[in-house]
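Re: the 196-residue chain
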Amino acid sequence: GPRSMAMGGVGVASGRGVEAAFYNPALLSKPPKDDKYELVLPYIAVDVADDDNLINEFDDFEDKVDDFDAALDDFNDMLDSENPTAGAAAAAADNLGIQLGNINEELASFNNKALRVDPGIGAGFARSSSDFGFALYAYNETKVAGRFLYAATDEQAVSDYANTLQVLAADLDADGTINNPDDYSNIYDSVNNKLR
């Protein structure tokens, strides 16, 4: 029952009424003070195990995604403007590269971390009495577990995209032309080859 779950699944001494049928049937001989009959329908429970603190890390990840969205909006606004300056283009590209790199680092920190959820549903009927106690109890639990995997090749590809944006930002000169177009195209080609 809920009380036993809150105590870490230990209900041998605390289970009463319907819960006694599951944890310790001998407790049916010790009825609760007010109730001799008890019906629980439905009984719903969810147990979540987050040993790797993944849920809190996802909260931090959402902040990184918001920062990336803002940087992407700034980059797109710069592209849509009628006369973008080289400085604005460089700043927007550099910031977008930084934010993409932050997301990549956060995803890499999730690698091989697990989360487990065990939902269950049940029903029960019990008659507790010091003379004669009985109970019927049915409970079904499902175990659902997942592990986050972020391949090293994916991490490298995203890192290359972030670096490409930062190289592009550094190569823009005052008139908006790219100083070293071969650097940019080589990085771009290497990223695309990794994604194939």
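The two ends are 52 Å apart (CA to CA).
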